[in-house]
Amino acid sequence: MDQQVIAHREITPGAKVAPIPDWVDPADYTIPATANPHFIAHGICVLLHDTQIDLCGPERAWFSRRAELVTAAAGAEHVAQFNVSFDPHFEQIEVHTIAVIRNGQRTEHTSSAFFEVMRRERNMERLQFDGRLTIHFTLPDVRQGDVVETAYTLYGMRKSLAGRQSAFMGLEWPVGIVDVRVRQRWPQTRQIAERRYGNVPEPTETIADGIVDRRWRVFERAGVRFEALSPPWVLQNAALQLTEWRDWAQVADAFTPLYEQVGALPDEVEQEIARIAAAEPTQAGRASAILRFVQSGMRYLAISIGEGGYAPRQFADVWSTRYGDCKDKSNLYAHMAQRLGVNACPALVNTFDGYALDGWMPSPQTFDHCIVRVEIDGKVYWLDATRPLQPSPLEKIGQSYFGWALPLRPGANALERMADPPNELLSETKENIVLGDRPETPVRYEWIHTFRGIRAEGMREQLERDGAVSVFKRYAEELQRAWPKAAVVAQEIVSDDVATNTIVVRECYDIADAWTHVSGQNYRFATRDLTLVGSLAPLDAGERKHEIYLGQPGRRSRRVELRTVKPHEGGWLREHRGTTLAYVDEMRVVEPRLLVLEQMLSIKALTLPAAEAELYRKVQTDLSGNELMITESLSGGKFVGGLQQGEQMSFWGTARWVLIGLLVVYWISRFAAGG
């Protein structure tokens, strides 16, 4: 690397321009005459991604260097923007080079660049503030064929990490990078563990003057094709984890003291403790009462500036502002619970990769959320105090399911496996439909939705946030996209049983344009599924390598009662059953003029084995068009029963039936389904 002389220059407190540190190895890379087409994306070919970490100085130093070849105008727009962020409360940054290489000539902009310093709160909409600053510079005159090379070093880490190294780095991405280099150097007196995931190459290592220098390199490796709908915690690319944390006990020992508090609880909190003690004689009652108090008594706001990202605030500050993040709320809950004789403590979790933590090496940086572990009579509950109000009893409220958790309590020395989500009945919908004897006669269509558990809590949150009027208005508008002349007959919350965590909602409409003209004197009506459709996303064709992520386990049922003018016959039964996914679809003629369709989707676990991908596709296809359709013929302006000459029953779309008068080929469909 032929870098021009860079003079020290302050950009802003904590950030400056400076030469590349002596410990860095700025080895050259190849600039090709023509970019390899297999490594081009969005007008850019990334030639180099170089990361070097130094643990030999008083502060951890993290050097990053990147070289990008512009292959199209769109790429120039991107690489001409230099952005790097840092937290001024515990980090310092040095910018070393921002250069354009054209036809072998290097133009260095670092010394003369006018840097803008911005505070860009990227999670402001989520009420999370981290206080990071972004240094920005727009390069002039970047063209197709140029190489833009940048390099900088970040120094420091949070004090709560006790100076211990921890890093998780990818070596593959969806788009290939020509040359990926990772280097770490540290004194032999420090013990740094390493774990490789996926196809990580063997490192090279040298030891000189008591310093270990270890390097990994991936060269000209194509981008990784990530399988869609894989569990979020499954690593599909090559990755490298480095850690100085000996075990999970060391992590717990370091972070448990951060949750200790100095001084008494605020008076209002003490009064609530006394009230709960008098009103709730059981531990379960007290546990749920504390949860309600913390959820409703303080709003969510995360000030993750500096140590605020890892340590909760003092109770006096939390209560005087009446806001707090997951750490603040969980810690307040735990202290109140302990005062009331309930065994509770904060617990660190990972909301994205939680099910993989037991296969990772210990590090506090693997966690992104804090909840509460409560144990009563030998049973463990995982409660999230940042959720909207959960008014139901402890046994009925929706809990947290993140795979593995690290309880923060004295003596904790390992991750604890959380329970898996139960396969409970979450929602059931009953649809009552009355058809008229003419196409212009409005169809009376009623939906009665019963939501349980977390689905009931989600419905309550929606009603609390937007109000029933707005929610029902939105429901009507969605229905009117399919049937513009649908008129509201009734929209109501039938019941809200907090004790069982169940809420029942009713919608009823008169639909004047429900029938669709097919041909001649034939008209068709189709039901509308508001319960099961969209439960499963489409899955790409081909064999699978990874499990299929199903989402929230539970059962969802739908029952349709369709009353017709003319009598009908027939029915069907179709079933798809796998290890963790099942779908049952049955239609019966209960009475000549009453058709009943019953469907049940059961998701027993978070994932489905890859070998059952075809079963998944069949269920998803069925759900994407699972409407009961009936076709009737007119005579004298009214619908008449029976098949007209030349008509026959057929399947509609994918595995759905059109009922035309008498179902003549019912037995054919039964044989096709194996019935």
Any idea what the shape is? Answer: globular
Total number of helices:
10
Q: How much strand?
A: 35-45%
**Helical residue percent?**
10-25%
CATH fold type of the largest domain: Immunoglobulin-like
Structural domains: how many: 4
- CATH classification, class level of the largest domain: Mainly Beta
N-C termini distance? 73 Å
For the sheet with most strands, the description reads:
11 strands, mixed
Q: What average pLDDT do the residues reach? A: 89
Please count the beta strands (DSSP E, at least 2 residues each): 42
CATH architecture of the largest domain: Sandwich
The whole-angstrom Rg is: 31 Å
Low-pLDDT residue spans = 642-675
Structural class call reads: alpha+beta
Write up this protein.
The chain has 675 residues and is α+β, with helices and mostly antiparallel strands. It has four domains: 234 residues, Immunoglobulin-like; 165 residues, C8orf32 fold (Roll), CATH 3.10.620.30; 75 residues, no CATH class; 160 residues, Jelly Rolls (Sandwich). Helices cover 17% and strands 37% of the residues. Strands 1, 2, 3, 4, 5, 7, 8, 12, 14, 16 and 17 form an eleven-stranded mixed β-sheet that branches. An eight-stranded mixed β-sheet has the order 29-30-28-27-34-37-36-35. β31 and β32 form a beta hairpin. The longest helix is centred in the middle third of the chain and has 15 residues. It is globular, with a radius of gyration of 31 Å. The relative contact order is 0.08.
